[in-house]
Model the fold of this input.
Amino acid sequence: MYSFTILVKRLVIHMLRYEIKKLYSKPINKIALAALLALTLTAGFLTIRDVTYITESDEHLSGIPAARHLREAKNEWKGELTEDVLKQVVEENRTARETVGNAEDYKSADAYEDALDDAFVKTQGIADIRELINSTFSDLFDYDYFRADSVPSDEINGFYQKRIDSLKKYLESGEEYFSDAQKDFLIEQYEALKTPLHYEYADGWMALMGSQYLPTLMIILTVILGFLVSGIFSDEFQLKTDSIFFSAKHGRGRAVLSKIEAGFVTITAVYWGAVLLYTAVALCSLGFGGAGCAVQIGSKWRSIYNLTYLQDYLFTVVGGYVGNLFILNFSMLVSAKSRSTVLATTIPFVLSCAPMFLGRISVLSRIMTLFPDQLLRINTNLDEFVLYTVGGKTWGYLTLLLPLYIVLYALLIPILYKVFQKTEVK
Done:
Protein backbone atom coordinates (compact mmCIF):
# COMPACT_ATOMS: atom_id res chain seq x y z
CA MET A 1 0.00 0.00 0.00
CA TYR A 2 2.84 2.34 0.93
CA SER A 3 4.63 1.62 -2.34
CA PHE A 4 1.42 2.31 -4.27
CA THR A 5 1.06 5.71 -2.55
CA ILE A 6 4.64 6.63 -3.48
CA LEU A 7 3.98 5.53 -7.07
CA VAL A 8 0.88 7.72 -7.28
CA LYS A 9 2.76 10.74 -5.87
CA ARG A 10 5.56 10.24 -8.37
CA LEU A 11 3.01 10.01 -11.18
CA VAL A 12 1.32 13.23 -10.05
CA ILE A 13 4.65 15.10 -9.87
CA HIS A 14 5.75 13.74 -13.24
CA MET A 15 2.50 14.77 -14.95
CA LEU A 16 2.64 18.25 -13.44
CA ARG A 17 6.29 18.63 -14.41
CA TYR A 18 5.45 17.49 -17.94
CA GLU A 19 2.70 20.11 -18.31
CA ILE A 20 4.95 22.91 -17.01
CA LYS A 21 7.80 21.77 -19.27
CA LYS A 22 5.47 22.02 -22.28
CA LEU A 23 4.66 25.61 -21.31
CA TYR A 24 8.24 26.77 -21.08
CA SER A 25 9.45 24.89 -24.15
CA LYS A 26 7.55 27.22 -26.50
CA PRO A 27 9.77 29.94 -28.00
CA ILE A 28 6.98 32.53 -27.78
CA ASN A 29 6.58 31.86 -24.06
CA LYS A 30 10.32 32.30 -23.51
CA ILE A 31 10.18 35.61 -25.36
CA ALA A 32 7.15 36.67 -23.28
CA LEU A 33 8.98 35.92 -20.02
CA ALA A 34 12.08 37.81 -21.17
CA ALA A 35 9.89 40.78 -22.11
CA LEU A 36 8.18 40.63 -18.72
CA LEU A 37 11.52 40.68 -16.92
CA ALA A 38 12.64 43.71 -18.92
CA LEU A 39 9.35 45.54 -18.36
CA THR A 40 9.39 44.79 -14.62
CA LEU A 41 12.88 46.21 -14.22
CA THR A 42 11.98 49.22 -16.35
CA ALA A 43 8.88 49.91 -14.22
CA GLY A 44 11.02 49.67 -11.09
CA PHE A 45 13.62 52.14 -12.37
CA LEU A 46 10.92 54.56 -13.59
CA THR A 47 9.33 54.44 -10.14
CA ILE A 48 12.67 55.30 -8.54
CA ARG A 49 13.16 58.18 -10.97
CA ASP A 50 9.82 59.72 -9.92
CA VAL A 51 11.30 60.68 -6.54
CA THR A 52 12.97 64.06 -7.02
CA TYR A 53 14.75 66.70 -4.96
CA ILE A 54 16.15 70.14 -5.80
CA THR A 55 19.21 71.32 -3.90
CA GLU A 56 19.79 74.94 -2.91
CA SER A 57 22.34 75.14 -5.72
CA ASP A 58 19.51 74.27 -8.14
CA GLU A 59 20.79 70.76 -8.79
CA HIS A 60 17.93 68.47 -9.75
CA LEU A 61 18.32 65.02 -8.22
CA SER A 62 16.22 61.91 -8.73
CA GLY A 63 16.16 58.38 -7.42
CA ILE A 64 18.50 57.30 -4.63
CA PRO A 65 20.32 60.66 -4.14
CA ALA A 66 16.97 62.47 -3.99
CA ALA A 67 15.62 59.93 -1.50
CA ARG A 68 18.59 60.49 0.77
CA HIS A 69 17.99 64.26 0.93
CA LEU A 70 14.23 63.88 1.32
CA ARG A 71 14.62 61.38 4.15
CA GLU A 72 16.77 63.84 6.07
CA ALA A 73 14.46 66.79 5.41
CA LYS A 74 11.16 65.05 6.09
CA ASN A 75 12.24 63.14 9.18
CA GLU A 76 12.84 66.46 10.90
CA TRP A 77 9.03 66.44 11.22
CA LYS A 78 8.77 62.80 12.20
CA GLY A 79 6.06 62.12 14.76
CA GLU A 80 2.37 62.85 15.26
CA LEU A 81 0.85 65.63 13.19
CA THR A 82 -0.79 67.47 16.06
CA GLU A 83 -2.40 70.86 15.57
CA ASP A 84 0.68 72.52 17.09
CA VAL A 85 2.92 70.82 14.53
CA LEU A 86 0.56 71.80 11.72
CA LYS A 87 0.67 75.43 12.88
CA GLN A 88 4.46 75.31 12.70
CA VAL A 89 4.20 74.02 9.14
CA VAL A 90 1.80 76.84 8.22
CA GLU A 91 4.22 79.41 9.64
CA GLU A 92 7.23 77.89 7.88
CA ASN A 93 5.34 77.76 4.60
CA ARG A 94 4.21 81.39 5.03
CA THR A 95 7.75 82.54 5.77
CA ALA A 96 9.02 80.89 2.59
CA ARG A 97 6.07 82.25 0.58
CA GLU A 98 6.50 85.82 1.84
CA THR A 99 10.01 85.91 0.40
CA VAL A 100 8.42 85.53 -3.03
CA GLY A 101 5.93 88.37 -2.87
CA ASN A 102 3.41 88.99 -5.65
CA ALA A 103 3.66 88.40 -9.36
CA GLU A 104 3.43 92.13 -10.14
CA ASP A 105 6.67 92.69 -8.20
CA TYR A 106 8.61 90.88 -10.93
CA LYS A 107 9.65 92.04 -14.39
CA SER A 108 8.57 88.79 -16.03
CA ALA A 109 6.55 85.69 -15.39
CA ASP A 110 9.72 83.60 -15.62
CA ALA A 111 11.32 85.58 -12.80
CA TYR A 112 8.24 85.04 -10.66
CA GLU A 113 8.30 81.30 -11.41
CA ASP A 114 11.97 81.17 -10.42
CA ALA A 115 11.14 82.81 -7.10
CA LEU A 116 8.37 80.26 -6.49
CA ASP A 117 10.84 77.48 -7.26
CA ASP A 118 13.26 78.90 -4.70
CA ALA A 119 10.49 78.90 -2.10
CA PHE A 120 9.64 75.32 -2.98
CA VAL A 121 13.26 74.26 -2.48
CA LYS A 122 13.11 75.57 1.08
CA THR A 123 9.87 73.71 1.87
CA GLN A 124 10.53 70.27 0.41
CA GLY A 125 10.70 68.82 3.93
CA ILE A 126 7.10 69.89 4.63
CA ALA A 127 5.72 69.29 1.13
CA ASP A 128 3.56 66.30 2.16
CA ILE A 129 2.13 68.11 5.18
CA ARG A 130 1.50 71.20 3.08
CA GLU A 131 -0.52 69.01 0.71
CA LEU A 132 -2.64 67.80 3.64
CA ILE A 133 -3.38 71.41 4.52
CA ASN A 134 -4.24 72.20 0.89
CA SER A 135 -6.63 69.24 0.77
CA THR A 136 -8.26 69.97 4.12
CA PHE A 137 -8.99 73.62 3.37
CA SER A 138 -10.16 72.99 -0.19
CA ASP A 139 -13.55 71.55 -1.06
CA LEU A 140 -13.59 67.77 -1.13
CA PHE A 141 -13.36 67.51 -4.92
CA ASP A 142 -11.90 70.96 -5.65
CA TYR A 143 -8.20 70.89 -4.79
CA ASP A 144 -6.26 74.19 -4.63
CA TYR A 145 -2.45 73.88 -4.68
CA PHE A 146 -1.94 77.39 -3.21
CA ARG A 147 -4.59 77.10 -0.49
CA ALA A 148 -2.01 76.53 2.29
CA ASP A 149 -0.43 79.90 1.50
CA SER A 150 -3.49 81.77 2.79
CA VAL A 151 -4.48 79.62 5.79
CA PRO A 152 -4.09 81.52 9.11
CA SER A 153 -2.43 79.39 11.78
CA ASP A 154 -5.38 79.89 14.18
CA GLU A 155 -7.69 78.16 11.68
CA ILE A 156 -5.73 74.93 12.09
CA ASN A 157 -7.73 74.23 15.24
CA GLY A 158 -10.08 71.34 14.48
CA PHE A 159 -7.93 70.35 11.49
CA TYR A 160 -9.06 66.72 11.32
CA GLN A 161 -12.69 67.61 11.97
CA LYS A 162 -12.57 69.88 8.91
CA ARG A 163 -12.00 66.79 6.75
CA ILE A 164 -15.18 65.23 8.13
CA ASP A 165 -17.11 68.51 7.77
CA SER A 166 -15.98 68.76 4.15
CA LEU A 167 -17.39 65.28 3.49
CA LYS A 168 -20.69 66.17 5.16
CA LYS A 169 -20.93 69.34 3.09
CA TYR A 170 -20.37 67.32 -0.08
CA LEU A 171 -23.01 64.75 0.89
CA GLU A 172 -25.52 67.49 1.68
CA SER A 173 -24.90 69.15 -1.69
CA GLY A 174 -26.58 66.23 -3.47
CA GLU A 175 -24.00 66.25 -6.27
CA GLU A 176 -23.95 62.46 -6.07
CA TYR A 177 -26.75 60.25 -4.76
CA PHE A 178 -26.15 58.16 -1.65
CA SER A 179 -28.73 56.50 0.56
CA ASP A 180 -28.86 57.52 4.22
CA ALA A 181 -27.12 54.26 5.17
CA GLN A 182 -24.35 54.94 2.65
CA LYS A 183 -23.92 58.50 3.91
CA ASP A 184 -23.59 57.17 7.46
CA PHE A 185 -21.03 54.62 6.25
CA LEU A 186 -18.89 57.29 4.57
CA ILE A 187 -18.96 59.52 7.64
CA GLU A 188 -18.14 56.57 9.91
CA GLN A 189 -15.14 55.67 7.74
CA TYR A 190 -13.86 59.24 7.93
CA GLU A 191 -14.39 59.35 11.68
CA ALA A 192 -12.61 55.99 12.09
CA LEU A 193 -9.32 57.39 10.78
CA LYS A 194 -6.87 57.36 13.67
CA THR A 195 -5.72 60.92 14.37
CA PRO A 196 -3.42 62.71 14.80
CA LEU A 197 -1.70 61.05 11.86
CA HIS A 198 1.81 59.70 12.27
CA TYR A 199 4.27 61.25 9.83
CA GLU A 200 7.72 60.33 8.62
CA TYR A 201 9.61 59.93 5.35
CA ALA A 202 7.60 57.46 3.27
CA ASP A 203 8.54 58.37 -0.30
CA GLY A 204 9.48 54.78 -1.13
CA TRP A 205 5.96 53.62 -0.38
CA MET A 206 4.42 56.74 -1.91
CA ALA A 207 6.31 56.16 -5.15
CA LEU A 208 5.45 52.46 -5.15
CA MET A 209 1.75 52.83 -4.36
CA GLY A 210 1.08 56.22 -5.91
CA SER A 211 2.44 55.65 -9.39
CA GLN A 212 0.71 54.24 -12.47
CA TYR A 213 3.52 51.75 -13.00
CA LEU A 214 2.19 49.14 -10.56
CA PRO A 215 -1.30 48.83 -12.09
CA THR A 216 0.27 48.95 -15.55
CA LEU A 217 2.58 46.11 -14.55
CA MET A 218 -0.46 44.18 -13.27
CA ILE A 219 -2.17 44.49 -16.65
CA ILE A 220 1.00 43.52 -18.53
CA LEU A 221 1.35 40.51 -16.21
CA THR A 222 -2.20 39.44 -17.00
CA VAL A 223 -1.68 39.69 -20.75
CA ILE A 224 1.69 37.89 -20.74
CA LEU A 225 0.41 35.17 -18.44
CA GLY A 226 -2.43 34.79 -20.92
CA PHE A 227 0.13 33.81 -23.55
CA LEU A 228 1.65 31.28 -21.15
CA VAL A 229 -1.48 29.49 -19.94
CA SER A 230 -3.96 29.87 -22.79
CA GLY A 231 -2.59 26.81 -24.58
CA ILE A 232 -2.59 24.45 -21.62
CA PHE A 233 -5.92 22.94 -22.60
CA SER A 234 -6.14 23.70 -26.31
CA ASP A 235 -2.68 22.39 -27.21
CA GLU A 236 -3.91 18.79 -27.26
CA PHE A 237 -6.28 19.71 -30.09
CA GLN A 238 -3.77 21.89 -31.93
CA LEU A 239 -1.18 19.08 -31.86
CA LYS A 240 -3.81 16.42 -32.74
CA THR A 241 -2.93 14.45 -29.59
CA ASP A 242 -6.37 14.71 -27.97
CA SER A 243 -7.39 11.14 -28.86
CA ILE A 244 -4.24 9.78 -27.19
CA PHE A 245 -4.62 12.10 -24.19
CA PHE A 246 -8.23 11.14 -23.44
CA SER A 247 -7.75 7.42 -24.11
CA ALA A 248 -4.92 7.21 -21.55
CA LYS A 249 -5.67 5.64 -18.17
CA HIS A 250 -5.54 8.98 -16.32
CA GLY A 251 -6.49 11.14 -19.31
CA ARG A 252 -9.87 12.20 -17.94
CA GLY A 253 -8.84 12.45 -14.32
CA ARG A 254 -5.35 13.03 -13.01
CA ALA A 255 -4.13 14.49 -16.32
CA VAL A 256 -6.84 17.16 -16.30
CA LEU A 257 -5.96 18.07 -12.73
CA SER A 258 -2.31 18.34 -13.76
CA LYS A 259 -3.23 20.93 -16.36
CA ILE A 260 -5.16 22.97 -13.78
CA GLU A 261 -2.26 22.67 -11.34
CA ALA A 262 0.23 23.70 -14.04
CA GLY A 263 -1.83 26.83 -14.66
CA PHE A 264 -1.96 27.64 -10.95
CA VAL A 265 1.77 27.07 -10.42
CA THR A 266 2.68 29.18 -13.47
CA ILE A 267 0.37 32.06 -12.55
CA THR A 268 1.57 32.05 -8.94
CA ALA A 269 5.30 31.81 -9.71
CA VAL A 270 5.34 34.42 -12.50
CA TYR A 271 2.98 36.86 -10.77
CA TRP A 272 4.76 36.91 -7.42
CA GLY A 273 8.17 36.81 -9.06
CA ALA A 274 7.41 39.96 -11.07
CA VAL A 275 5.61 41.83 -8.27
CA LEU A 276 8.26 41.10 -5.64
CA LEU A 277 11.07 42.01 -8.05
CA TYR A 278 9.38 45.33 -8.82
CA THR A 279 8.83 45.95 -5.09
CA ALA A 280 12.44 45.11 -4.24
CA VAL A 281 13.84 47.44 -6.91
CA ALA A 282 11.70 50.34 -5.66
CA LEU A 283 11.94 49.93 -1.89
CA CYS A 284 15.57 48.80 -1.69
CA SER A 285 16.46 51.98 -3.56
CA LEU A 286 14.10 54.46 -1.90
CA GLY A 287 13.76 52.94 1.57
CA PHE A 288 11.21 50.96 3.56
CA GLY A 289 10.52 53.75 6.06
CA GLY A 290 6.96 54.98 6.53
CA ALA A 291 5.22 51.63 6.03
CA GLY A 292 3.05 52.36 9.06
CA CYS A 293 1.92 55.80 7.83
CA ALA A 294 -1.68 56.17 6.73
CA VAL A 295 -2.26 56.43 2.97
CA GLN A 296 -4.03 59.73 3.67
CA ILE A 297 -0.66 61.48 4.15
CA GLY A 298 0.04 60.92 0.47
CA SER A 299 -2.38 61.63 -2.34
CA LYS A 300 -5.32 59.72 -0.78
CA TRP A 301 -6.65 62.31 1.66
CA ARG A 302 -10.22 61.56 0.48
CA SER A 303 -9.86 57.78 0.87
CA ILE A 304 -12.55 55.92 2.78
CA TYR A 305 -10.15 53.00 3.24
CA ASN A 306 -8.21 53.55 6.46
CA LEU A 307 -5.03 51.69 5.58
CA THR A 308 -1.33 52.07 6.23
CA TYR A 309 1.01 51.94 3.25
CA LEU A 310 1.97 48.36 4.11
CA GLN A 311 -1.70 47.36 4.31
CA ASP A 312 -2.38 49.16 1.04
CA TYR A 313 0.47 47.24 -0.56
CA LEU A 314 -0.78 43.87 0.70
CA PHE A 315 -4.36 44.70 -0.31
CA THR A 316 -3.19 45.74 -3.78
CA VAL A 317 -0.89 42.81 -4.56
CA VAL A 318 -3.21 40.15 -3.09
CA GLY A 319 -6.10 41.72 -4.99
CA GLY A 320 -4.04 41.67 -8.18
CA TYR A 321 -3.20 38.00 -7.58
CA VAL A 322 -6.86 37.07 -7.12
CA GLY A 323 -7.77 39.08 -10.22
CA ASN A 324 -5.12 37.26 -12.24
CA LEU A 325 -6.25 33.85 -10.97
CA PHE A 326 -9.83 34.53 -12.02
CA ILE A 327 -9.09 36.13 -15.40
CA LEU A 328 -6.51 33.52 -16.43
CA ASN A 329 -8.55 30.55 -15.29
CA PHE A 330 -11.48 31.95 -17.22
CA SER A 331 -9.12 32.15 -20.20
CA MET A 332 -8.21 28.48 -19.68
CA LEU A 333 -11.92 27.63 -19.53
CA VAL A 334 -12.42 29.34 -22.89
CA SER A 335 -9.41 27.41 -24.19
CA ALA A 336 -10.86 24.10 -22.98
CA LYS A 337 -14.31 24.82 -24.37
CA SER A 338 -13.39 26.41 -27.70
CA ARG A 339 -10.19 24.39 -28.34
CA SER A 340 -8.68 27.66 -29.59
CA THR A 341 -5.48 29.10 -28.16
CA VAL A 342 -5.90 32.35 -30.10
CA LEU A 343 -9.37 33.02 -28.71
CA ALA A 344 -8.23 32.19 -25.17
CA THR A 345 -5.28 34.58 -25.50
CA THR A 346 -7.62 37.52 -26.14
CA ILE A 347 -9.56 36.99 -22.92
CA PRO A 348 -6.94 38.45 -20.51
CA PHE A 349 -6.56 41.52 -22.72
CA VAL A 350 -10.32 42.04 -22.97
CA LEU A 351 -11.00 41.60 -19.24
CA SER A 352 -8.04 43.70 -18.08
CA CYS A 353 -8.22 46.57 -20.59
CA ALA A 354 -11.69 46.88 -22.15
CA PRO A 355 -13.58 47.71 -18.91
CA MET A 356 -11.38 50.80 -18.40
CA PHE A 357 -12.76 52.29 -21.61
CA LEU A 358 -16.30 50.98 -21.25
CA GLY A 359 -16.44 52.47 -17.74
CA ARG A 360 -16.28 55.93 -19.30
CA ILE A 361 -19.73 55.37 -20.79
CA SER A 362 -22.15 56.72 -18.18
CA VAL A 363 -24.72 53.93 -18.50
CA LEU A 364 -21.99 51.30 -18.02
CA SER A 365 -19.84 53.02 -15.41
CA ARG A 366 -21.58 51.44 -12.43
CA ILE A 367 -21.54 47.82 -13.60
CA MET A 368 -17.92 48.13 -14.75
CA THR A 369 -16.84 48.66 -11.13
CA LEU A 370 -17.65 44.97 -10.53
CA PHE A 371 -15.34 43.64 -13.26
CA PRO A 372 -12.12 41.85 -12.25
CA ASP A 373 -9.88 44.50 -13.83
CA GLN A 374 -10.61 46.66 -10.78
CA LEU A 375 -8.51 44.25 -8.72
CA LEU A 376 -5.50 45.03 -10.92
CA ARG A 377 -5.41 48.70 -9.87
CA ILE A 378 -6.62 48.84 -6.30
CA ASN A 379 -3.93 51.33 -5.27
CA THR A 380 -5.19 53.97 -7.72
CA ASN A 381 -8.86 53.63 -6.73
CA LEU A 382 -8.69 54.07 -2.97
CA ASP A 383 -10.26 57.53 -3.10
CA GLU A 384 -13.28 56.44 -5.14
CA PHE A 385 -16.68 56.81 -3.44
CA VAL A 386 -18.17 53.68 -5.01
CA LEU A 387 -20.40 51.81 -2.57
CA TYR A 388 -22.59 48.71 -2.63
CA THR A 389 -25.14 47.60 -0.08
CA VAL A 390 -25.39 43.83 0.33
CA GLY A 391 -27.61 42.19 2.94
CA GLY A 392 -28.23 45.52 4.61
CA LYS A 393 -24.50 46.17 5.02
CA THR A 394 -22.64 48.86 3.06
CA TRP A 395 -19.25 48.09 1.52
CA GLY A 396 -16.62 50.07 -0.28
CA TYR A 397 -16.53 48.31 -3.63
CA LEU A 398 -12.88 47.32 -3.38
CA THR A 399 -13.54 45.50 -0.11
CA LEU A 400 -16.42 43.68 -1.75
CA LEU A 401 -14.52 42.65 -4.90
CA LEU A 402 -11.79 40.66 -3.14
CA PRO A 403 -14.01 38.04 -1.44
CA LEU A 404 -16.34 38.04 -4.45
CA TYR A 405 -13.62 36.95 -6.87
CA ILE A 406 -12.08 34.49 -4.44
CA VAL A 407 -15.46 32.73 -4.42
CA LEU A 408 -15.85 33.00 -8.21
CA TYR A 409 -12.35 31.61 -8.74
CA ALA A 410 -13.12 28.68 -6.41
CA LEU A 411 -16.28 27.97 -8.42
CA LEU A 412 -14.41 28.22 -11.71
CA ILE A 413 -11.99 25.36 -10.93
CA PRO A 414 -14.54 22.49 -10.82
CA ILE A 415 -16.28 23.92 -13.89
CA LEU A 416 -12.97 23.95 -15.78
CA TYR A 417 -12.29 20.38 -14.67
CA LYS A 418 -15.71 19.09 -15.74
CA VAL A 419 -15.68 20.91 -19.10
CA PHE A 420 -12.36 19.44 -20.17
CA GLN A 421 -12.98 16.03 -18.62
CA LYS A 422 -16.15 15.58 -20.69
CA THR A 423 -14.64 16.84 -23.94
CA GLU A 424 -15.53 14.66 -26.89
CA VAL A 425 -12.76 13.46 -29.18
CA LYS A 426 -13.47 14.19 -32.83
Observations:
- The longest strand covers residues 387-390.
- The first helix runs from residue 2 to 25.
